[in-house]
Amino acid sequence: MSKKDDLEALEQQQKKSQENAAGNERWLISYADFVTLLLAFFIVMFAVSQVNKAKVEGFEKSMRMAFGGKPPVTRTAPPQADEPFHHLPSPVPLVAVPPAMAQAIREQEQVMAHMRVQLRRALAPLIRKGVIHVVKTPTGTKIRINANVLFRSGSARLQPKALRIVDVVGLVLKKFPYHIAIEGFTNRIPIRTRKYPSNWYLSSARSLSVLARFLLDGVRPDLLKAVGFGATHPAVPYTPEHIQNALRENRRVTIFVEGDTRVIMTQIARMIH
C-alpha cells in the first residue's frame, strides 16, 4: 500500500471518529431542551401562585360576614405539629373590608333576618309540626313546604287549606325586592297519566301553581321563576329503614329567596382589578 493510500485511510478513520463523537453527544441537545422547558414550567407555576393575598383574604372575610354574621378569627400562632395543615405558613392578618361592601352586606342580612322572623311568626303552627322549614342559606332564605299540605297525591291543584299557606308566604315576600325561585319535587314513585306523563310534568305543574298564587298575592312577576326537578335531588335518602319518611319528605315545594348580590359583586370586581 502506497503512502498516499495510508494518508487517505487515516483521514477516513479520523472522519469516522469525529462523526461518532458528535453522535455520542447528541443527547446533550435533548437534555438542554428538557432543562429549558422544565425551567419555563416552574416560572409559569411561580407566576400563577403569586396572588394578591390581601385582596383574597379581604374577600373571604366579607363573605363570612355576609353569610355568617361574624368575622373570622385570625390565628397568629402557627399550627402545632399534630394539627392539620401544620406544614403550611401561618396566616397573615386580614385586611379591612371595603366600606361599601360591608354596608351592603349588613343591610341585606338585616332585611333577610327581618323577613325570616315574619315568616316564622306567620307559619309557626306548621313549623312546629315539621311540615314547613324556614332556614337561612349562604345566599338568602329557603322555605321548604311538604307537598302533603299543598296537593293531593298525583295532583298539582292547590288544596283550599294550601291556598291560605301560600298566601301567607306570598304576602310576606311581596314586601321585599328579592328574586324568588319556586322549585317543585316529587318522590321516586313514577306517575304516568294523561295530564302528567311523568314526574317532571307533575313537579313543574306544582311549582307553577304556587307561582300563579304568588301573582294573585301581588308578588312582582319579574322576580318569580318556577322550576320542576321531578324525582331528582331527594332531600332525604331512600334508605330501607327510612323509606316511608323519604317518600313523604321528598314530595315538596321549595321557595328560595335569593339575596341581591349586585353590590357585592361590583365591589369584588373592583378589588380584583
Provide the descriptors you would attach to this structure in a database record:
single chain, 273 residues, alpha+beta, 60s Ribosomal Protein L30, Chain: A, 2 domains, five-stranded mixed beta sheet
Task: Give a verbal description of the structure.
The protein is α+β, with helices and mostly antiparallel strands and 273 residues long. It has 2 domains: 47 residues; 164 residues, 60s Ribosomal Protein L30, Chain: A (2-Layer Sandwich), CATH 3.30.1330. 52% of the residues lie in helices and 12% in strands. It is built from 9 helices and 5 strands. It has a 5-stranded mixed beta sheet with strand order 1-2-5-3-4. Strand 1 and strand 2 form a beta hairpin. It is elongated and about 115 Å long. The chain starts with a helix and ends with a helix. The model has no long low-confidence stretch (mean pLDDT 80).
Number of strands: 5
Q: Uncertain spans, ≥5 residues at pLDDT below 50?
A: none
**What kind of sheet is the major sheet?**
5 strands, mixed
Instruction: Describe the strand arrangement of the main beta sheet, using strand numbers.
Output: 1-2-5-3-4
From the N-terminal CA to the C-terminal CA, the straight-line distance is 84 Å
What is the CATH first-level class name of the largest domain? Answer: Alpha Beta
How many individual domains? 2
* pLDDT averaged over residues: 80
> What is the fourth-level CATH superfamily of the largest domain?
OmpA-like domain
| CATH fold naming of the largest domain | 60s Ribosomal Protein L30, Chain: A
- The general outline is elongated
Category from helices, strands and their pairing = alpha+beta
| Proportion of helical residues | 40-55%
CATH architecture of the largest domain: 2-Layer Sandwich
Task: Provide the gyration radius in Å.
Answer: 34 Å
Helix and strand succession?
HHHHHEEHEHEHEH
